[in-house]
Amino acid sequence: MIVDFHTHNFPDSLARRAIDGMLKMLNGIMSPVGDGTLGRQLADMKADGVDLAVMCPVATRPEQADVIVRRACDIRDGALGEDAARMILPFASLHPSDPCLLRHIDLVLKAGLKGVKLHPYYQRFALQDPLVAPFLASIRDAGLVVVCHCGLDPGYPTDAIDCGPSQIAELLDRVPGLAPRFVAAHLGGWSGAPDHAVDRLLDSGCFFDTATLEMDLDNPEPRRILSEWPADRLLFGTDYYWTSQRLLIDWVREVRRDPADLEMIFHANATRLLGIPNLPSTNQGPDML
Question: With respect to CATH, is domain 3-274 assigned 3.40.50.2300?
Answer without folding.
Answer: no
